[in-house]
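Schema walkthrough. Field components (list of strings):
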Amino acid sequence: MIDERWGPDAREFGAALRETLRRACPPEVVRAIEAEPTGAAAAKLAAGLRSVGLDDLPDDPELLAVAAFELGRAAAPSGFVTADRPRDLRVLLAVAQIAGAAERALELAIDHAKDRRQFGVPIGSFQAVAHKLVDTRIAVDGLILLVRKVAWTGPDAFWSAALISAAVPRAFTVARTTHQVFGGHGFTVEADLQLWTRRLRSWARALPQDPPEARIAIARQLLTDADQVRALWHHERGLALPRWARELDATGVRP
Amino acid sequence: MARLIHRWSGTAVDDVRAEQLGELVVELEIDRLLNLRAAALGERGEDAAAEASMSKVFGSELAQRTAEWVEGVVAAVSSNDPLVADAAQALRTSTAFTIIGGTSEVQRNVIADRGLGLPR
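Field assembly_structure (string):
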């Protein structure tokens, strides 16, 4: 059976990094660094990240991806994700960072829906609000699972395209629905939500392909190399054309 | 979908259809991961109520989208082609997917309650 979680080492490092970021990178620090990118706050955060071992991570996609996820979750201003690495690894980290930011923005919106009361009840008790959050939860969970899968199997051009196809619409969906749930409260610069939603949108735009390009590349690869479909329907790793599909279709007329 | 890919492989497929195919393949893979997650949680004896419902909502709605699309793109081929007949059958069957075993609306209530902890 598969394990859908991060691997044990990644889980341990992710937890340590999250704890460091919780203390060293609250929204006030993000704002201070935004105001002065090379100031004292930035130097202090960089030192904190060094102390948890961010600069000494081995070249393991899972560890790097969990780090990018946690940095995104904290909206931490850091050059870690954009550092010079092979292209597909860079895409994995960029999407992991988007997934982290999406996770946090969604958590903020869910907490707000529990606290904020209108018409005498918490707004999260209205199905119109709850179902929007549920759909966003499903979208974000799907992206996180895809990030973990690619971190585990190792990034390549095919899966980079898959990550981009999934991440971009999800980043925009999360930004849109979380602002909707916050109503007027999330719209101001003083509200913390924008720290994540601005990044979600700009990080999604900074990916090296746009979703149509990525999807066409995926389809072209599947259509020219039927064996690539192997990993899609494979139990352990996902995505070769199953035998039954070829056999069932063997009687079909090619157009 | 696998049979459609097999059918189309080596033929000229325009960019519009290629894009739709690529998107659905990625979403089907994500659906598979949501399914496997619910199964893995269950295997470890953890509570998977919300995760199972997420997989059901996403999978059944994606199945309808996929069936609609496949039926649309193969319909023009030929009337006595088994793939055309099976695609039409899949489209009819998929209508039930968002209803059987708890409608998508009920599943979303379960996820809101058990997964997000939203007040009822």
